[in-house]
Structure formats: structure tokens, C-alpha cells
Amino acid sequence: MKKRYTISVFTEDNVGLLNRVTIIFTRRKINIESIAASDSEVKNVHRYTIVITETEDLVKKVVLQLEKQVEVIKAFYHEDDAIVYQEIALYKVPTDILVAGKEAEKIVRSHYARVLSVEADFTVIEKTGHKEETQALFNDLEPYGILEFVRSGRIAISKPMKTLTSIVEELENEINN
Amino acid sequence: MRTLELTRSESKPETQTMSGAQAVVQALIDEGTELMFGYPGGAIMPVYDALYDVEDKLEHVLTRHEQGAVHAAQGYARATGKVGVCLATSGPGATNLITGIADAQIDSTPLVCITGQVHSHLLGTDAFQETDVIGISMPVTKWNYQVTRAEEIPEAIAKAFYIARSGKPGPVLVDITKDAQFEQLDYAYKPFGGMRSYQPVSALNSKAIEQAAELINSAKKPFVLFGQGIILSGAEQEFKTFIEKAGLPAAWTIMGLSALESDHYLNVGMLGMHGNYGPNKLTNECDVLIAVGMRFDDRVTGDLSRYAKQAKVVHLEIDPAEINKNVHADVPVLGDAKASLKALTELVEPKSNEEWLACFRALEREEREAVINEELNPSSPIMTMGEVIDEINTASKGDAIVVTDVGQHQMVACRYAKFNESKSMITSGGLGTMGFCLPAAIGAKMGCPEKEVVAVIGDGGFQMTIQELGTIFQAKTAVKIVVLNNEFLGMVRQWQELFFDKRYASTTMVNPDFQTIVKGYGIRTRKVEVREDLAEAVAEMMMYEGSYFLEVLVGKENNVFPMVPTGASVSEIRLK
Predict the structure, then answer these.
(1) Strand partners, B111
(2) Is A60 close to B324, i.e. CB distance below 8 A?
(3) CA-CA 20 to 30 A from A60: which of B382, B444, B537, B567?
(4) B132 in A contact zone (CB under 8 Å)
């Protein structure tokens, strides 16, 4: 059965690695639903957070093929309940809609969204949360006219996991021995 | 296979000032390279210029096409167990390497490919002969890297060799911009010491070894499948000791062929689509299946949902990504085959499994009567590919290296060629690259000049890299070339006959006079049209000192049997 999985890939911080990571998915025609790249708590270790919907059996194979890449340090996969995750979305709406009546303001409040910037002709609203939550705000604002919308890839921190520092230390010890 | 050798460079820690191009050449020498294959061009000229000064230490063989260079490097690597090295220029030179790199990737062949690249300030500008070879080669390399500064060269080359030959070997590509080749650096060579993100071999798991031994000891019908992992880890002797002690019938994938001598009493033959009858049938009857250094390719397994479902599976494998990829392993044993087999042998009980072995022999007799006798001693005057291979066996006594191309002749050569020594069969297994044979045979012969190297090729594949006759001519390589000419793309034709109502779409070959062409390259030639001449012609070829071209006209519409049709189970193997 297909499910949503979040894959965390820890790599060396080298040019071209993003491509090496994504072609593992491309090769099997797996759609990457979201991807985020950033530093990690360990110096020179980069991390990618990738969300896909596939069977666990396939996800396992993909994770092993990711780890097989020479510059990939470690890869993990998790179901949603094993991680704490978040996304951020930005909404650009006409400032008029906030001035004209109370409705739009109510929507922003009820979603616990923040106003980041107000200009004469547009306002930028920010909402962090799960995709369902950022989507709900999108749906509510849509009738008022959304000028621009963007959502980041999911970032996630796993609940049960050895610390990356200890994994990296173990691997480094193995080379020195 | 952690084979990071401490090379000669250990003794000279002092730095020398030189150009990037000279550093490339020096690093190759420091890594132990004696022979490389390549083709010059604009962006790699500084390296060629540096090679000119070291011709006595590092031989460069000029091929006639970059694809020839990479296949030659593969043949060299497969025959010697060393890293194959090839050199090409940017753009088309680099893209011409890709087929060979993909072939090496899927067949785990250690290669270091070096390509020239346009000046670093021109990267991304669509400069003359610029192509993004890093992007193009990424899916088919174990690792690749672009050098834009000369000072990166020593480490990049050392790392390339380390990655290519360690763990599960594979091809790596180092792309070097022209300005980095010109730039000066202080050169000091240091062998690469490993990296945290890459653990080539897992430590021996004694628990898994114990579980494996327990399964094998309890088995009534144990069956071993072995692949190239035995050859790559140099575990031929350990493997033989293992199967002899536990009395295990052993069948091979075409990549594992020659790891165990052909006439060994436990060698029960070839697996897969055109493999032997017994090993395919009995895969679905064994109770414990022990796979060693093989990856359950679909050409070996047939329909996976009906593959060895009754058996417990033990999988000895170096690559964690291969475990459970195609076939579920009840006991995965990660690690290098040599170490794992040694440990496992200590724990298995001595057995002979006579009754079980007799099942293989009974099916072998059936296959002999239905297929083999007619292939090797045909009742019709039309010659078969099998009898040509058999004549080669007679002349070589199993001591030659046989290199094949891809198609019917490849399957026939794998089925019937006899070998005494490991690394004697060189074939394009995973990728099935037509055109592989002729250049690979050149590389094999140059790597093992003391051995006879016989290139067995179809008339189709021969014309895919026929230009490498020029390399043979110039380098005076004493390769024996046997073209089995059926004036068809035989394997595709066979499928058209069996599965496409004999609609022979684009499989008939109107061939040139190969004799005339080959003569033009100064190679001795002979054509055999009737059986009466065959044995004598093969003997003459094998006795001849230099390169020799033998063309044999074989049956146009002969088929290779047995056969596991696509989608069928291995036990549904057809004898006709």
C-alpha cells in the first residue's frame, strides 16, 4: 500500500550531489512531492528532506540506493507520525481585501497566520504548518484573490534517531582504524 | 575488497612543481597505471603532451573511437583485475565514452575515465566541444568529479582509483578543465585514505554466518548460484573449498563464468534465459538457495513471483542495496565474498549430497540428448555456432580468454566454452552492449599478452566497432577474431520467429566482404564455409603468432535453446 514517507538524506556538502540524489527517484519514475536542502548540525554535512508517496518496500530500496552513493553519509525514511515536520507558505493578497471588510482579517486570525509586509497595493501573509493547514488558508483566501502563492518543501526532524554527530563520529572512527 | 595499496609515492614526500597535465600523468603512474587507452582532442591536449615525455613508463594505446577506448579499458580490467584507464577529450569525446561507462557500472568493472573540459571560464556558455559530462555521466558512474584548479588533481585522481577499485568496483570519471591542465602546482602524491560517507565493505557478521551455516547444514537439497563477486573478491579458491566441503552443486551467472573451472564435478552449469536445463529447473526444487556475489538479474530469475519460492535464501553480497532488491534473503550475509566464504566454510558440515547431485546429472542427460548433441555434432551440413566454440575448446584446451559480443553467439559461447582459469570469460552481461567484443578483446590481450585471446563476435556486433581493426593493425595486437556470420541479427530474429510470427523487421544483414575489409588492415584472414575445413582452420588460427580473422558461415536461422521465455518461470524452461 502506498503511503507518504519522508526521506532524510545526509551528504557531504559537494557540488552536484542534489542531482545524484534526485536521479535515484527519476530513474524509477517516482514523483518528488517536496524537497528541501539545508545544513545540518554537523559542519560540512548537508541534508535533504524529500517527501514521496510510495510503498514501504520501494522506499526501503530507494533509501539503500541513496546510501550506496559514495558521498551520501546516511539516509533514513519515516512515516508522518515518527517525525516532527513543518512547511512554510507565503500568500500575496491585495491590501484592499484587508481594508474593505472584516472577513479577510478574520480568516488570517483564525488560521494563526502572520502578516509579514504591508504595501499600498499588496500584503504578504505567512503561515507555517502542515500542508493541509497551509492549503486550508489558501482555500479560504482564494475567493478574495491571491496574487502570488509559494510553499516550501517539508522540513522534518525525526523523533527516534541516533544523533547525527554520533553517526558521523562512528563512521570517521572506522576510517581511522 | 579494501585494496588501498600503499603505492610507490610513499617514498617521495617532497613536492615537485609541474603543470596540471603533468600531475595527471604522474598521478596515474603513482597509482600503478602502465597502460591506458584513449583518443586525443583539443581539451585534453596538454595531458597528451605530458604523456609524450613518459612513453616508457605509461603506454597509451590510440583506439579508433572513444567507445573503443573505454571497452578496451574494460577488457583490460576484466582480464587483469586491475583498474582500466581511458582518456578522451571534451564534448563528443566524452559522450562517446558513455556506453562503456554504463556497461562498466552495471557489470562492476573498475575504470578511471579522464576527460578534458573547456576552460573553466567558458563552463556553461556552450563553448566549442563543451558538454556537461558530469551531468551526463552521473547516473552511470560510481563517482564523478570536475577539476577546475590544478591543485585538486593529485587528490582527485587518488580518490578516483580508490573508489573505482574498492568495495563493489565501478567506473569513475574525472573531468579536467583545460586551464587546470595548464596551471602549475606543487605535486606530492598521497594515496587516498578513505572517506566517512563511503564504507566499501561491511564488517563480517558472524551471527549471519552462523545462521547461514545452520541453514546449509540442515538442507537436503542445497543449491549455490555464483556470480562475478567471486572473481572481483579473488575468492575462487575459498569458493571451491566451500562447495567441496558441503557438497554443493553450483551454477553460474554469465558474469561468474570461469570463476570455477568448467569440468569441476560440482559445476552444474549456466543459469538464466539460455542457461542449462538442470540448474533452471532445480532452482524451483532446492530447499536452500545460496547466492554468492550475484544480484538476481531478471535474465537469471525469469518471473520473480515464481522464483525459488519453496527455498530459504542465503545471500552473500557486498552491496547492501542488492539485499532484498529482487529476491528476499532469509539470511543476508553482507561483506566481501572471500572473507564470508572462509568463515562459512569453517561452520558447514562435510556432505556429498549424492542423490541431489544425481538430479542435476539426470537433467543434464536430457538436455544433452535434446539440444547439446545436435548443437555440437549436427546431423545437418549447416554449421552451428556451438561446434565452432567446441573447436576453439579443442584448440585452446580451455586456456584461452574468450571475449564475446552480445546476442546468440554470446549465449552459445557462454554455454559451450570451457575454462580452466578465472577471469577467462569477458562479456557484456548487464548492459548487453553490441560492439563490446572487439575493443574489449584488444584490452584483454594487452593486459594478458601471454594468453590467447579469442574474440567471438556476430556479424552485427562486429560492424558496430569494426574500426578497432585499425587499433589492432597499429598496435600489432595478436587477437584472434572469430565472426560467426549468419547474416542476421540472430537473437532478435529468434525472438521474431518465436514471438512475432516470423516478421523479420530489420534483422537481415546485407554484409560487405569481411575478408576484403580485414585484409586491408593487414590481418591474416580465412573464411570457412563447410564443416570439413573448420577444425583445421581453428587450429591454424590458434597456432598463428599474430592477429587472425576467422569468419565462419553458420546456419542463418538456428536458434539458441534451452530458453526461458520472458515472463515465464525458470522451471518452465523450454528445450525446443
Answers:
(1) B84, B171
(2) yes
(3) B567
(4) no
Which of B528, B521, B286 is CA-nearest to residue B391? B528
Does residue B568 lie within any of the structural domains? no
The shortest C-alpha distance from B77 to chain A (Å) reads 21
Cβ within 8 Å of residue B240, ≥6 positions away:
B260, B264
B128, B397, B499, B515: the active-site residue: B128
Select from B79, B71, B74, B72 the least CA-distant residue to B402: B79
pTM, rounded to two decimals: 0.96
Mutation target to probe the B interface, by most B beta carbons within 10 A, among A70, A172, A176, A177 is A70
Distance, in Å, from the CA atom of B184 to the CA atom of B18, rounded to the nearest integer, reads: 5
Could you write out the DSSP letters of every residue in A49-89?
A: EEEEEEEHHHHHHHHHHHHHSTTEEEEEEEEGGGEEEEEEE
Q: What is the pLDDT of residue A177?
A: 63
B261 belongs to a structural domain: yes
Cβ pair A73:B321 closer than 8 A: no
One domain for residues B329 and B410 = no
Q: What's the gap in Å between the CA of A12 and the closest CA on chain B?
A: 7
Domain A2-84+155-172 has CATH 3.20.20.80: no
Segments in chain A below pLDDT 70: 161, 177
B366 — alpha (psi -120 to 50), left (phi > 0) or beta?
A: alpha
Distance CA B555, CA B414 (A): 19
| Tens-place pLDDT, residues B18-31 | 999 999 999 999 99
The residue whose grid cell reads 534483422 is B507
E strands of B196-248, at which residues? 222-226
Q: Inform me whether the pLDDT recorded for B9 exceeds 60.
A: no
B473-518 pLDDT per residue, tens = 999 999 999 999 999 999 999 999 999 999 999 999 999 999 999 9
What's the distance, CA B297 to chain centroid? Answer: 15
Q: Are B70 and B120 in contact (CB under 8 A)?
A: no
In CATH, the number for domain A86-151 is 3.30.70.1150
Q: Are strands A114-118 and A122-129 parallel, antiparallel or unpaired?
A: antiparallel
A40 lies within 8 A of chain B by CB: no
Residue B12 has pLDDT above 60, yes or no: no
Q: List, for residues B316-361, the tens digit of each pLDDT value.
A: 999 999 999 999 999 999 999 999 999 999 999 999 999 999 999 9
A12 inside 8 A of chain B by CB: yes
Q: Is A173 helix (H, G, I), strand (E, B) or coil?
A: helix
Counting Cα atoms < 13 Å in the Cβ hemisphere of B82 gives 19
State the average pLDDT for chain B: 96
Looking at beta carbons, which residues of chain A come within 8 Å of B328?
none
- DSSP code, position B260: S
Q: What was the pLDDT predicted at B6?
A: 38
The torsion angles phi and psi of B100, rounded to 5 degrees, stand at -65, -35
Helix B408-416 crosses helix B385-396 at what angle (to 10 degrees)? Answer: 40
Question: B511 and B455 in one domain?
Answer: yes
Q: Cα separation of B506 and A175, whole Å?
A: 55
ipTM above 0.85 for this complex: yes
| Chain A contact probe: residue of B132, B197, B319, B334 with most A CBs at under 10 A | B197
**Residue ranges, CATH 3.30.70.260, chain A:** 2-84+155-172
pLDDT value at residue A170: 85
